[in-house]
Amino acid sequence: MENGTGNSTNYFNLKELNHATHALDRNQKTYSNVLQCIGNTPLVKLSKIPKEEGLECDIYAKCEFLNPGGSVKDRIAYRMFLEAEKKGILVPGKSVIIEPTSGNTGIGLALAAAVRGYRCIIVLPEKMSDEKVNTLKALGAEIIRTPTEAPTMSPESNVMVAKRLSKEIPNAVLLDQYNNVCNPLAHYDTTAEEILWSMDDDVDMVVIGAGTCGTISGVAHKIKERCPKCVVVGVDPYGSILAQPEEINESDVQMYEVEGVGYDFLPKVLDRSVIDKWIKTEDSTSLQMSRRLIKEEGLLCGGSSGAAMWGAMQAAKSLKAGQRCVVILPDNIRNYMTKFISDQWMEARHFKPLPVNDKIWWWNKQLSEDIIKPCSSISPDCTVAKALALLHKTGDTLLAVLNDQKSIKGVFTTDNARQRLANLSASTGESLDKFIVKKYYKVNIDNKPTLGEVSRILDISPYVVVVKTEEYIEKPLGTITSEDLMHYITTNGNHMNGNCKA
Fold first, then answer.
1. Same structural domain for residues 195 and 320?
2. Cα(303)–Cα(287) distance, integer angstroms
């Protein structure tokens, strides 16, 4: 997708702003604090993957996951922090930092807040990994989760919740990475300078994932000043609208698994005029590439790194031997240990083949309805009290929440309700909608899932919801738990597998 009209008329003039660069190839013996270690990340030449993909050019990975907070966002967080202190916007011992984020900017801000002594509140969607949340909490940040599916302009989105809190909480400061000039400026001054220094001002292509777009906009502006021949490639997942022309349909915005890239709106820090080409990516190829970067190149990076690298493998086909392509790898493996690093997680989404196991009699057996435990259903208009009472009465694992078309909207569980109440993110007096689990593990019986697939999902989830599609409507058939599966295995086996003898 070639570059169309951009939004450069409203973009910042980075060249005329005040700049703050750091010494390149720094090798100090000591640092006054961990924030001084941000930047100067290594540029590593890749060997195996480009060769396997048949590329002739040289591919270099800018290892931003080696920043102290684990991502490229450390750079912008610290730069926004310093600028706000310099202007008196942030006052030590008084100001409260609030930021909507997909996690990494929040970690960068929480890191700075921990070192410099500020209260920090991070607002992030429920899609983001528990590892990010736990890291933020360990740094002392307060966490508020918002519905993943909430559009940016919805009052329930992380952006709008953060804006509301910034008005309600005394001395609150919203640094606003989506519109803050320090976002692209940090990369204009440091990331781009480091790439140019490492490449002796001679680079033919840079490939960068688009999230808030500060990285790609800032890097592109500086590199094009010094190396005009360089082709800037933006990587954007299907389901995001950053790569699209100005006219956007609601149907273009969809859910995707890769974190930290893509948005359903256009941040001010995006300047399309300096992006020469866009590559759209899918979850499966992105996450598989992340696993390859880890296994084949030894780079302990995250899912968005795989998206950027997959995009680079497509874009760099146009380069010849001797030409050089730099790919920015934004964050690290730590944030995703229970997500794409988990084989079961990948298998449940069909991003990775199910393991073959011919030694277990039931493994390859197709799931049948007699194994499924039916579950009760409930309308989203019901009260929380009624839902809890129904669960208590039936003894079901969960309730299927159905919309007016009898399609499953989500599930209600006592465990999730307890967590919402314990985290003060909802009260029993609110609508049931706030208690609905909308991301859960399921299999569609029409796809003929095996018991092996169900077993692998049960490794990472206490239940599997079984659905069936009727006239394009996804209807719940019931659930399967480990207890249900074990009951089937022990009562239907040939009693020659795993018998215990007195």
1. yes
2. 5
Gyration radius of the chain's alpha carbons: 25
Tell me, yes or no, whether 500 lies in a domain: no
Compute, in degrees rounded to 10, the torsion defined by CA atoms 157, 137, 302, 218: 60
Q: How far apart are CA 333 and CA 306, in angstroms?
A: 11
Three-class DSSP labels, 51-93: HHCCCCCEEEEEEHHHCCCCECHHHHHHHHHHHHHHCCCCCCC
pLDDT value of residue 251: 56
Instruction: Evaluate whether residue 498 is within a structural domain.
Output: no
Q: What would the pLDDT profile of 68-87 be if each residue is shown by its tens digit? A: 999 999 999 999 999 999 99
Q: Is residue 159 part of a domain?
A: yes
Q: Where are the alpha helices (DSSP H) in 189-316?
A: 192-198, 214-226, 283-297, 303-315
**Alpha-carbon distances of 113 from 58, 125, 139, 200, rounded to whole Å:** 39, 21, 8, 36
How many domains would you assign to the chain? 3
Cβ density class 422-456: b for 16+ within 10 Å, e for less:
eeebbeeeeebeebbbbebbbbebeeebbbbbbbb
CATH number, domain with residue 256? 3.40.50.1100
The catalytic residue positions are: 73
**458 & 349 share domain:** yes
Assess whether 229 and 290 both reside in one domain: yes
Same domain flag for 209 and 267: yes
CATH number reported for the structural domain that contains residue 462 in this entry: 3.10.580.10
In a domain, 202, yes or no: yes
Q: In whole angstroms, what is the distance from residue 478 CA to residue 480 CA?
A: 7
Give the domain range for residue 388: 343-492
Sequence-distant (6+) residues with CB within 8 A of 57 are: 50, 204, 205, 316, 319, 320, 321, 322, 323, 324, 325
Considering the domain architecture, whether residues 83 and 47 belong to the same structural domain is answered as: no
What are the tens digits of pLDDT across the range 42-54? 999 999 999 999 9
Say if residue 54 is in the same domain as residue 203. Answer: yes
Cβ–Cβ under 8 Å, residues 113 and 120: yes
Closest CA to 234 of 273, 211, 208, 269: 208
**Could you tell me the CA-to-CA distances from 480 to 36, 163, 373, 414, 438 in Å, in that order?**
51, 41, 6, 17, 18
Q: pLDDT tens digits for 249-298?
A: 555 668 899 999 998 889 999 999 999 999 999 999 999 999 999 999 99
Per-residue pLDDT at 419: 82
Q: Is 93 left (phi over 0), alpha (psi -120 to 50) or beta?
A: left
Average pLDDT over residues 383-400: 91
User: What is the predicted pLDDT for the residue at 250?
Assistant: 56
Q: Is the pTM of this model over 0.85?
A: yes
Residues 326 and 428 in one domain: no
Report angle CA 279, 284, 289 to the nearest 5 degrees: 75
Strands 205-209 and 231-237: parallel
